[in-house]
Amino acid sequence: MFNKGVRGMKHQPRPIAAAVALAMLGAGLPAWAEEAATGAPATVKEEAVVVTGIRASKFKSLTAKKNADSLVEVISAEDIGKMPDKNVADSLQRVPGVNTITASGTEGGFGENDRVSMRGTPPSLTATTINGHAVGTGDWYVLNQSASGRSVSYSLLPSELVDTVVISKSARADLVEGGVAGSVDIQTRHPLDAKKPLSASGSVEYVYSDLSAKWDPQLSGQVNWKNDAGNFGVLLQAFSEKRQTRRDGQEFLWWDTIDNLWGKNKEVLAAHPDLKGKYVSLLTGSAYFEQERKRDGGLIAVQFKPSSDINLELTGFSSKLKASNYNRNAMQWAVSPLTHGVSPSKYTISGGTVTSLEFPSTCPAALNGDCGGSLVTDQIARPGASAKSQFINLAGKFKASDRLTLSGKLGSTKGEGSTPRDIGFEVGSGYTGGSYNLHGIDNPADVVIPGADKYAPNADGIGGWGSSTLSVDKERYAQADGDYHLGLGALESVKFGVRFSKHERQLESFKLKTLDAGKFVNVGPTSLYPGDFGSHLGGSVLKNVWQLPMSAVVDWSNKYQVLDGRNLDTEFRIEEPVTAAYAMATLGTDNLRGNIGVRVVHTKEDVHNNRKDKNGVYQDVLTSNSYTDILPSANLKLELSPSLIARMALSKTMSRPDFGALGSLTLNDLVLSGSGGNPNLKPVRATNFDIGAEWYYAPKSLLSVGLYHMDLSSYVSYGTYKQTFFNQTQGRDTEYTLTAAQNTTGRVQGFEVALEQPLAYGFGFNTNYTYANGKETSAYCQNLQNGGESHACDLVGTAKHSYNLGAYYEKNGFSARLAYNYRSAFLNGVDRKSAIYQDAVGTLMGSLSYTVSDNLTLTLDAKDLNNPVLKSYVYDKTGAKQPRSFYTNGRQYYLGLRMKY
Description:
single chain, mainly beta, 31-stranded mixed beta sheet, 4-stranded mixed beta sheet
């Protein structure tokens, strides 16, 4: 029903036809609205707001929004098809109050939306389900595998999967808990919804990534069959999508003062006392990343309705993202000459930062040639990196009587993130001088390192590190629900149910040891970075740099690296059995509708860590905790006039801490930092309040405004402490500064404004704006803030301003859309002892299509037309911004052909 779209509609849809269409939307949701043949007013059966594509879909959208009981929005497959949306998150970013990021953590973006968050909170506080059940997930990036977040990776969920996406901004008792800020339910197609006994559709696309300058195929298709009786059907979907990615970047991996260094640093400070306490960029790198992504998988659904009272459906899904990747980073090694006593020949200071730094071109005679090095390069290969997600789900519905309907789900899901080999090949070159000149966070730094194009290891030669990582995420679940129609005046029905689940998360990690012979091996021929490296970043980034092919790094590892046991400090295992029950009443009068209910949830958490005993032997340490949450909720809708509606929602919500925050440990041997878990963390709990109004001031038009407040009575933030671990790079025990999770308090409040307005001659536009003000409210952070750390109370994920601008045209078979999405700066997480902020960024995308016939459409889509630069920064102790990274992934163009039968 969504694939047909609006091209075949020659006349404006009538209200009865629109209501019938709404009643048919998605078998996963009961009918949203129905209208009797006599023209009686529509009766809402389930809450939804449809955010579909163009023209007639706008009419359906506003009709459904007006009839909805609670704060819910829905995106249809039709809307996704009218934009260059290659996974579900691409579409969600245009919904008011919803934000997306192109990475799970602080690693920067990779040209595809990967995580979804709502209303200024981290992605882990937004629950994602498929057809109302959990979905196991995995990450392809090794640091995210170790961090083990709870949020779902949308890189595994292609847009072809979708029939409908339901975004719930307010809680209801019948929704699975886990979303403090809201939830996203991705609903797949159902075989018996098809209009014809046999139908098929598919697309053939080629994507061109302008930075990698390569074309790649993107294929998808589906076949749906149902018998003549219309009571048995089978749906098969498959996708195979390949894309070559390239990311150019500049990274500032180590900010510190010369005071905190070692060796002959005091001699440098004695010669230049004004450098004392000033922050220096100690590793300023040109990062060149390449990856081949290939996403393969499919879905099968078998549906059987032996009678009008019984409906059974078995659904299976599998998606695998092959994501081998190779990252090179050529870094100005400022820490090396500074610790060898080399004083800079020139420098400038602004506030607490050394904004430019230049070393003498030759090693000072007084140091007798012992000046350290000017360039250190990392060639990091991750062959075979991948992520997987799969599930099997059996759902059933039985109409026991005219008043009672029973339903249930039973299934299991599993996700994996795997990096079989994370190979680090590091080369330190001799001293040649060099310089950097910062431009704040506006543009990358100018970096000069003489001889960077030459492969010239210094006396320390070649070193390396490596690991093998596997993260497994799985859940088994069973759920039973009942819906009893009462018909007692304002009390229409009661819904009730129970759910049982057991979630497990496990991280396995092995070490790779570099043999001594590997330090001096001749690794073979080298080449240079591409000539256009960094050309879209601005500034004079270091680009004339030597590099190796990925195959040479893998060959080196094959010869000189061996498995050396498990990283027992890092590994953990978590078991999380959950029992939940709920009851919810549906209310309805002439002008007032809504629902009120309560969900009770009991969670048990068993966290297994490996820790050394007093004899230095690792032992399995079990930490067990359990807690019960009572989660009431209420949603009310008041019709003040035929065109004006007021809404209010109040609820308590909860989300369990990230698995990594409970059990993970990640160490960085170079800068002696890490992050550790806290197995005694409490869940994130919140009290949410929403109030809003919608004005349907003209046909197909809407102006809406909503206010929201989220009181986080418990929230997960981070503190630091010192702990000693074995340093693989240095081969000895060293002291690390760990950043550990801890519970605190916070709040998020703000408002949303949205406008839908069709214009004449097939034109129209839509826009929305969201304001989010989020702060940690604990006494600890406020003391830090009063002590001068002005951003100590910032919440992770809170972008104060976000907005969307959209315009469309559709007429005579031609369709065009433009959409611009903007998100202001926000705290993205903690890395290497620093709070990392992502700077404001906007993205422009567009779509053109022409309907050749009822069964054939030509498409041209474009993503990131404005070639956005992703910038991140940190604050120093004076409150000034220091650059942390600049990245660009280039533009993507999709030329395609869509067919249906």
